[in-house]
Amino acid sequence: MTAVRRIRRLYAGADLTTSQGWDAYARRYKGERLGDEWNRPDVEGLDVSADGYVAHLDSVVFAPFLGHVGTLLEIGPGGGRFSEVLLTHCDHLIAADTSRSMLDLLRGRFTAQRNISYVHLDGLGLRQIGTCSVDAAFSYGVFVHLQHWDIYNYLVEIERVLRPGGNALIQHSSTLSEQGWQYFLREVPGQLNRHKLFGTYTVMTPELMAEFARRAGLKPLGCRTDVVRTEAISLLQKAAATSDGQAD
Ligand SMILES: C[S@@+](CC[C@H](N)C(=O)[O-])C[C@H]1O[C@@H](n2cnc3c(N)ncnc32)[C@H](O)[C@@H]1O
Fold first, then answer.
1. C-beta 129 within 6 A of ligand 1
2. How do residues 190-219 score in pLDDT, each as one tens digit?
3. How far, in Å, from the CA of 246 to the mean position of ligand 1?
4. Distance 247 CA to ligand 1 centre (A)
5. Apex CA 38: angle with CA 33 and CA 39, to 5°?
6. 101 phi, psi to nearest 5 deg
7. Does residue 110's CB lie within 6 angstroms of at least one atom of ligand 1?
8. What is the widest separation between alpha-carbon atoms in the chain?
9. How far, in Å, CA of 248 to CA of 244, rounded?
10. Confidence of residue 160 (pLDDT cuts 50, 70, 90)
11. Quick one: 102 exposed, middle or buried, by C-beta within 10 A (0-12, 13-18, 19+)?
């Protein structure tokens, strides 16, 4: 049984929020590097080893899109599976997560690192992060589990905290891809007549994500559906400022 299923069973009937579920996951975690269990290239249709999974995504999508920036915001870093590589793409990484237990694991993993700060989020947005204060935003393994209302709210918040012209890379579900549809079907029996279960693979498509982004004031630059076949990676941008200080 997977760790997510064990937690669902342990808290059956408790109606866990996404944040509470992942906090429970981190509290029960016994290994060294939480997140490595999600490096599953075979499941995701990638021809790389599990050890080479993060480096592959970095070389194909993250590095080319993010480049090197001053301040990079990571939403939901968990145990730091991607933080390690993100630290090489910025002068300063803000690791923002709703789970204090995840943040504790992260602090333990990056004790020697000086250019990372830790922010505990309340799950309602990014109010702890200043307006126009980050150069880029990144989130992986988080939006796949968020409700649509949370997704839209985070996009609005990302637009607020990004500096003009800043990029955001958000990975999310792709329900209508072949593999995404299989995920969806697997979850049908457990989801009937109840609130969303913790760890659910949210129903989302590249088109809906692009429309949410537009309505949040972000420009969809593209969506990679060719890298990880189970999900999609949306590439978004906040409009650049014009000479009169208005958004372009
Ligand atoms: C499946 S883990 C992924 C962690 C990491 N990004 C990775 O891919 O290995 C989901 C992470 O998102 C965090 N999270 C859940 N809900 C969140 C929310 N509303 N805002 C920010 N982080 C959230 C969880 O605490 C957890 O650290």
1. no
2. 888 877 788 889 999 999 999 999 999 999
3. 33
4. 30
5. 90
6. -65, -40
7. no
8. 58
9. 10
10. very high
11. buried
CB count within 10 Å of CB 220 equals: 17
Q: For the chain, what percent of residues have pLDDT higher than 90?
A: 79
97 lines ligand 1 (CB under 6 A): yes
Length, in residues, of the chain: 248
Which run of H or of E encompasses 88?
Answer: none
Say if residue 11's pLDDT is above 90: no
Which residue in 129, 51, 56 sits closest to 92, CA to CA?
129
CATH tag, 3-238:
3.40.50.150
User: Any idea which of 3-12, 14-23, 91-100, 200-209 has the lowest mean pLDDT?
Assistant: 3-12
Q: What are residue 216's phi and psi, to 5 degrees?
A: -85, 0
> Which residue CA neighbors atom 11 of ligand 1 most closely?
76
**Euclidean distance between CA atoms 115 and 94, whole angstroms:** 9
Q: How far is the CA of 117 from the centre of ligand 1 (A)?
A: 16
Tokens 């997140």 sit on residue = 35
Give pLDDT tens digits for 102-117.
999 999 999 999 999 9
Rounded mean pLDDT of 149-155? 97
Question: How far is Cα of residue 150 from the mean position of the Cα atoms in its chain?
Answer: 12
Q: Report the distance separating Cα 66 and Cα 136, nearest Å.
A: 7
**211 Cα: distance to centroid of ligand 1 (angstroms):** 23
The atom of ligand 1 lying closest to the CA of 34 is 9
DSSP assigned state of 37: G
Nearest-angstrom CA–CA distance, 31 and 121: 24
Token code pair at residue 228: 């990880």
